[in-house]
Design brief:
Layout lengths: L1 E5 L2 E5 L13 H10 L8 H17 L5 H7 L4 H7 L4 H8 L29 E4 L2 E4 L14 H10 L8 H17 L5 H7 L4 H7 L4 H8 L10
Antiparallel strand pairs: 1-2, 3-4
Length: about 230
């Protein structure tokens, strides 16, 4: 945990500058954090529209809206969203909104996300597929990215309701993510993914209905949220 200060006010954040408690957010945080992200021209009305949509949607559903939900609601495409938030949807728009969707949920904590006491889980739950055991964390993300294989992706995709199977286009995205992460040691932004695979955000949403980080990235066996993403 660390702190971020702007205009004589201090906020508790994690190592990536996401607010620890979304309830402590105010517009002052967004303005100050925008400067930290290099958005030195300030926040326009369009920026605020995106920021407040994310926060309002979170208040309605208890989860951070995935990128295609926001772009569809506000009539944005990947290019226009990138112009507004160059560092990404999660690491730009959501960050400024004081909301994170670590492993699919907006309440960010260093503690594991609470699960039903009726379900026995240890720190490394396991998914059994054929004769192989995959080490995953409590949120279902692969612990060791080198342990990934296509069987893992197929199983994860099925669990995410991609029951028609992974097409060539799915695999293009999946292998792009893995190669990029291995090369750059970070998850590509959703813009980079769309551009490299010649698809728009709506196309990506059709391929991975669960979202970018919570769908494509997780199926690719990469950390959906963490110091390396």
């Amino acid at each position: 945990m660390k702190t971020f200060s702007f205009n004589h006010k201090t906020y508790e954040t994690d190592d990536q500058n996401f607010l620890i408690d979304h309830a402590t957010w105010d517009e002052n945080f967004a303005i100050g954090m925008a400067h930290e992200l290099g958005m030195n021209d300030g926040l326009t009305e369009r920026h605020w529209e995106v920021i407040h949509f994310i926060r309002n949607r979170f208040a309605e559903i208890g989860a951070c809206p995935v990128v295609h939900e926001t772009t569809q609601a506000l009539d944005l495409n990947a290019k226009s969203l990138q112009q507004l938030f160059p560092t990404g949807y999660l690491r730009g728009a959501c960050l400024l909104a004081g909301i994170t969707y670590k492993y699919g949920w907006v309440y960010y904590s260093e503690e594991p996300y609470p699960v039903s006491p009726l379900i026995k889980q240890d720190k490394e739950p396991r998914i059994q597929l054929k004769d192989k055991v995959y080490r995953v964390d409590i949120f279902g993300s692969l612990v060791d990215i080198d342990g990934w294989d296509e069987d893992f992706a197929i199983r994860r995709a099925y669990e995410m309701d991609i029951k028609s199977g992974l097409t060539d286009k799915h695999w293009e995205v999946i292998y792009f993510l893995r190669k990029s992460f291995i090369r750059d040691k970070k998850i590509p932004t959703v813009y980079q993914c769309c551009e490299a695979n010649q698809i728009d955000i709506e196309d990506l949403a059709s391929l991975f209905p669960g979202g970018y980080h919570r769908g494509a990235v997780k199926i690719a066996g990469l950390p959906t949220f963490g110091k390396e993403s």
